[in-house]
Amino acid sequence: MRGGVRVVLLTLLLYAGVLGLFVVVVSAVLRAPEGGGLGFGSRVAVVELEGIILDVDDIVRDLKSHRDNPLVRAVVLRINSPGGVVGPTQELVRSVQRLRESGKPVVASLGAVAASGGYYVAVATDSIYANPGTLTGSIGVIMQMANLENLMKKVGVEYVVIKSGQFKDVGNVSRPMTADERRVLQALLDDVHRQFIDAVAEGRHLDRARVVGFADGRVFSGAQAKALGMVDELGGLEEAVNGAAKLAGLPIPARVIPPRRRFSVMDLLRSQLGLGKATTFMPPLPAFKTPLFLLD
User: Fold this and answer.
1) Considering only Cβ atoms within 10 Å of each terminal Cβ, which end of the chain, N or C, has fewer?
2) Which of 95, 116, 127, 138 is catalytic?
3) Beta 287-289 vs 83-85: how paired, if at all?
4) Rounded to the nearest 5°, which phi and psi values hold at 114?
5) Which of 153, 163, 168, 277 is catalytic?
6) Distance between CA atoms of 57 and 91, rounded to whole angstroms?
7) pTM of the model
């Protein structure tokens, strides 16, 4: 009797293993790009940079994963971002540079908006593609702080500060900014702006003086940016993928690893309620960011 039960259990385990393997194979087929079979062989990976650049840990991990994956021969960075905080932007730039140093070309595909910090990341790639109407550029740095002194007086709020240094409460909302504080912050922003200009001049192989001429915060269309040498080609994601495949010596059309979709319960609920995505809080830090322009 025990032997019979054992045979039944082993049979069930065998069927479960076969079923599990079947599910894995079917999932691989469904995820594979058109004409890619099971996705074996060299391919181009697509990584998305969406929204304000603040937390880049997931994207950095994705880029490292593709750098270590021998099947990935090139990467397309799809950018839809108005910019973000300086430090994370530069961390992302360094990740792109490491990927290129490993021998894998990286191509930027600029979507609706790839301005300020979004463009800063793009100039770290081998080649930049933009649509004619893409909003890009906005090479500059900004820091915004409120002065709520009059409002606080009206509501009877007294703001008490105890500090250890003259500039420890720079940006205090309860009083006007002093001339010395403005000088310190302006020097900080000028230094970061210089870093931005240097990155564009080096990444785009442009004369620095030429970059200074349009690095005043202006936003350009993709067509204008191409005329200035800020982008290489006009085209969308498909053209960028083909360009990356060409740089990597892969056949066109190339097998593609699509961007990772990260599931968020909150995003799902907001979508169902018609609320859209939540707005990310932007702290009062030096930031590469630009206003959003919409075509109606």
Assistant:
1) C
2) 116
3) antiparallel
4) -140, 75
5) 168
6) 9
7) 0.77
